[in-house]
Amino acid sequence: METTDLPLGFTLDLPDWMEAELKLLPDAVPDLAARMALVLRLARLNTERQSGGPFAAGVFERDSGRIVAVGVNRVVPSACSSAHAEIMALSLAQQRLGVYDLGGPDLPAHQLVVNWSPCAMCFGAVLWSGIRSLAIAGSDPAMMAITGFDEGPMPHEWRQELAGRGIELIEGMLREESLADFRRFAASGQAVYNGRQGA
Ligand SMILES: [Zn+2]
């Protein structure tokens, strides 16, 4: 590779089908379970359209439910190991608002809603994002057992770490629906990418 081939930047995009999907979304989703249902729908569509892994996330204003940004997993189509749904949603929310800190002054509290618990990378991204609330469908080993996706070396004390940094954690929302979607993904035979897991 010539040095003139060295990249100057990179772009991550949501899949083409998302444009029509975004037009169908309301401005706000006040009900928390309805926020998770929206995220599950996007994850399911990402599996059906084969446009990434079976994960989706949304950034909402915590109290009003206003939708700030949504994301789906784009690792395989984007050739980018960090294009997880949480990274997509948080980054798009920050780009939309023009801030690197979603918890900054003069901003309403923001909530990230995801269809499973964060991996080791996204856990860090959650901490740095400024969100005040994290809502997830589950955090037990069931997802990894079904899909084979690796969440990496999460700190054992991750719940306490969130609490200590003032980030509320809501667990177990629509867990069974989420697991049913992961089973559908596993049955579809699509790629399960993971980092190195051995020597
Ligand atoms: Zn992740």
- Beta-strand content: 5-15%
Structural class: alpha/beta
Helix content: 25-40%
CATH homologous superfamily identity: Cytidine Deaminase, domain 2
Helical segment count: 8
Radius of gyration: 16 Å
Mean pLDDT: 94
- Can you identify the CATH class? Alpha Beta
Order of helices and strands: HHEEHHEHEHHEH
Quaternary arrangement of the chains shown?
Answer: single chain
What is the terminal separation in angstroms?
28 Å
What ligands are attached or bound here? zinc ion
Based on the structure given, which CATH architecture is correct? Answer: 3-Layer(aba) Sandwich
- What's the overall geometry? globular
Q: If strands are numbered along the chain, what order do they take across the biggest sheet?
A: 2-1-3-4-5
Low-pLDDT stretches are: none
CATH domain topology: Cytidine Deaminase, domain 2
How many domains? The number is 1
Largest sheet: 5 strands, mixed
Number of strands: 5
